[in-house]
Amino acid sequence: GLPDSAEARCAMLQAAEADRMRAFLLHAGGQPVAYLSLPVEGRTLVYAQLGYDPDFARLSPGTVLQIEALERLFAEQRFAHFDFTEGDGAHKALFGTHHVACSSLILL
């Protein structure tokens, strides 16, 4: 889920106030069922956190929210890239247009 510490919440609110965050919440029947938070780095949105209520999984609320969020973000005409970050995922194959090879290294 979303970070729930006071510090994390404060950091997210400060980023939003500085226009360095986009966040979305999907409701069904008045109940929150999915969320998406996207920090802004220059002209790039970073796919930071997406979550959904497992009771609604059969309705694919994360995918529905992703579509709605992308439509609103494209309408802003501000961002050049949407960084899905590393790893595999069906949503990346569905919504992505390009990919860049990357790796994480730990030097001991």
What is the CA-based Rg, rounded?
15 Å
Q: Which secondary-structure class do the elements indicate?
A: alpha+beta
Find the count of extended strands (DSSP E, 2+ residues): 5
Helix content: 25-40%
Describe the overall structure:
This protein is of the alpha+beta class. Helix content is 31%, strand content 27%. The chain is built from 3 helices and 5 strands, in the order αββββαβα. The chain has helices at 6-17, 61-76, 90-95, and strands at residues 21-28, 31-41, 44-46, 49-52, 81-83. Strands 1, 2, 3, 4 and 5 form a 5-stranded mixed beta sheet that branches. The N and C termini lie far apart (31 Å). 14% of the residues are buried.
Give me a quick take on this structure:
With 108 residues, the protein is an alpha+beta fold. The chain contains three helices and five strands. It starts with 5 loop residues before the first helix and ends in a 13-residue tail after the last helix.
List the helices and strands and how they pair.
Layout: H1 6-17, E1 21-28, E2 31-41, E3 44-46, E4 49-52, H2 61-76, E5 81-83, H3 90-95
Features of the shown structure:
108 residues, alpha+beta, five-stranded mixed β-sheet, 3 helices, globular
